[in-house]
Write a structure and sequence with these properties.
alpha/beta; Immunoglobulin-like; four-stranded mixed sheet; binds copper (II) ion
Amino acid sequence: MRPIAALLTAVVSVAALAACGGETSTRSAPETSVAGADVTVVVDDHDYEPEHVEISAGQTVGWNFQDRMDHDVAFDDGPASPIQREGTWTRTFDEPGTYEYLCTLHPSMTGTVTVTADASPPPPTTVEDLP
Ligand SMILES: [Cu+2]
């Protein structure tokens, strides 16, 4: 009796593990994510997408340039990306506040980064390779 009970227990355990593994939600990691960035903004089609992002102080926003023409990201408070049509650019925000930016070539392209006080430890910034 005892060996069979043990075997059953093992089988049930394996089945439970398998069930858990099978239900792991596969978050679709957008291939546009900028490495090292907590939030990614895609620059495409004369637009920043999303136009407005919100992060905690200390986090990094990455811009991924995907359009067929040149753009940049120029902040009202100074920092600006090079003018580029591909590649990425990142900026880390340490101070809470609202940061507005635009494309100097196309001033109608605008975006905003809202930085809130860092109330909790930031989430891991590693961008892992998901299956
Ligand atoms: Cu532009």
